[in-house]
Amino acid sequence: MSISAGVIGLGSMGMGAAVSLLRAGIPTQGLDLREEARAAFADAGGTLAPDAAALGRESDVVLIYVVNAAQTREVLFGDAGAVPAARPGTVFVICVTMEPAEAADICGRLEQAGMMAIDAPVSGGAAKAMEGEISMMASGSETAFQHAAPALEAISATVFRLGERSGAGARMKVINQMLAGVHIAAMAEAMVLAASQGMDLDEVHRVIQSCAGNSWMFANRGAHVVEGDYTPRSAVDIFVKDLGIVTRTAGASGAPAPLSHTALELFRQTSAAGLGRRDDSAVALYLARQAGVKLPGDGEQGT
């Protein structure tokens, strides 16, 4: 089946999806507010859309990779939004981390407008996104999945089908982000403790990956600490947002989440210290500064 696609939001994950679509031979338009993102997508062979309406009008499948639910509503239903201009039956794939109730509401509005919706938050990081190997936690109708299949196959290694009811993907992403945020915080504590003991961080990172204390986040984000590379693949402020979603969801359910609250406070403090736009592994920088420990790549205090 031949389709055209559009990607709104060309950040690290959205750019990876857009490039993966192009690599699969799917004509793809992209939209982002940032000039550098637009230029990078054009250099990759993509077509730039002037606004969300134009992108929606010309795409069979529209993937949304903006920051939050408010931005999602704006690009879909706001002035020059994609939905009023889209053809009936267009599939909108919502890849944004948001509260489950927000995801269900947005998908419901899309269906009321005559569109098809897939609630499909993603995981895997920027490198896997660029390779077309992310994981998707997705819910939606069988018809929507069939129509979007070429796009989903192009951008993902695994699509976890979680039923037809919207919000199921968002609920699964809450669990993922709970674990991811806590594991990043644990990685940061471990690496700072190791540094305070005068241990070789490269050796710590290598050894622990073969031991029971390892996690995906320790392996991935611990490498950033060892290399002193805090280029934002996923920023500290993203986890301020995401762990906020986690703790609110837990609170609404009456489920205790003490580790999530503690991790959220660490991310908030790291952001307040001026590190909010650095890679989320920069929570280790914040802790190291509290301990008077110097980590690789640590420049001026507060930056």
Quickly describe the structure:
By secondary structure, this protein is an alpha/beta fold.
Describe the fold and architecture:
- The longest helix is centred in the middle third of the chain and has 29 residues, at 168-196.
- Helix 1 (12-23) packs parallel to helix 7 (125-131), helix 12 runs antiparallel to helix 13 and helix 13 packs across helix 14 (283-291).
- The chain folds into two domains: 5-166, 3-Layer(aba) Sandwich (Rossmann fold); 171-291, N-(1-d-carboxylethyl)-l-norvaline Dehydrogenase, domain 2 (Orthogonal Bundle), CATH 1.10.1040.
- The protein has helices at 12-23, 35-43, 52-57, 69-77, 82-85, 100-112, 125-131, 142-155, 168-196, 201-208, 216-227, 236-253, 258-275, 283-291, and strands at 5-8, 28-31, 47-48, 61-64, 91-94, 116-119, 122-123, 134-140, 156-161.
- It is globular and about 60 Å long.
- It contains 14 helices and nine strands.
- It has 303 residues and is an alpha/beta fold.
- The protein starts with a strand and ends in a 12-residue tail after the last helix.
- Strands 1, 2, 3, 4, 5, 6, 7, 8 and 9 form a nine-stranded mixed sheet that branches.
